[in-house]
Design brief:
8 helices, 179 residues, mainly alpha, 61% helix, flat
Length: 179
């Protein structure tokens, strides 16, 4: 199976990808193998992952402030109902940037709650969370963000766009190299 077939199979699924522990271990072992095998050719993809990491880290203070202001008092935390999981781009990023990989997919089934949710919030470090957990802001958080300065809102929007662009380019570069 070529890399493009591999990707097609991932995105054609209706359930959470790599739900079983065995499938999770296989996909991560395969990514490790491909990255080590193509280390020299993946320099651009690694650079994109590092750029993405810088943009993500520059958002964390604002995101932590928003969460502290809203999440502890929320009657219906997003994490309990959100259909989140690590997607292919999330995994490629974690591998290329050298961040720890969770020991299992975040959900064992779409009807289950994220494994990393606790009453006081997510147990994953911000940098290791799926992209959707970073960019999604609940209505209350959006309202707080709207009260910030125009410069702060514009900076946040630019950072979000930078991460989106880096994710897209990083995935394309990874697939180009390993295919």
């Amino acid at each position: 199976m070529g890399a493009s077939d591999f990707m097609k199979n991932i995105y054609d699924r209706a359930e959470t990808p790599w739900e079983s522990k065995a499938a999770w271990q296989i996909v991560n072992r395969n990514l490790d193998y491909l990255i080590h095998r193509h280390r020299d050719e993946l320099k651009n993809a690694v650079m994109l992952a590092r750029n993405m990491e810088d943009s993500l880290e520059s958002m964390f203070t604002l995101l932590n402030d928003l969460c502290r202001a809203t999440c502890p008092w929320c009657p219906a935390p997003c994490c309990l109902s959100a259909e989140v999981w690590m997607d292919f781009k999330d995994l490629v990023f974690l591998h290329l940037a050298g961040h720890p990989i969770p020991d299992r997919q975040l959900r064992s089934h779409l009807k289950k709650v994220c494994r990393c949710w606790r009453p006081k919030g997510c147990v994953l470090p911000r940098i290791s969370r799926p992209w959707i957990c970073t960019w999604y802001l609940c209505p209350t958080q959006k309202a707080i963000l709207l009260r910030k300065s125009c410069d702060a809102r514009d900076k946040f929007s630019r950072q979000i766009q930078t991460v989106k662009d880096c994710r897209r380019k990083m995935e394309a570069e990874f697939i180009r190299v390993v295919s």
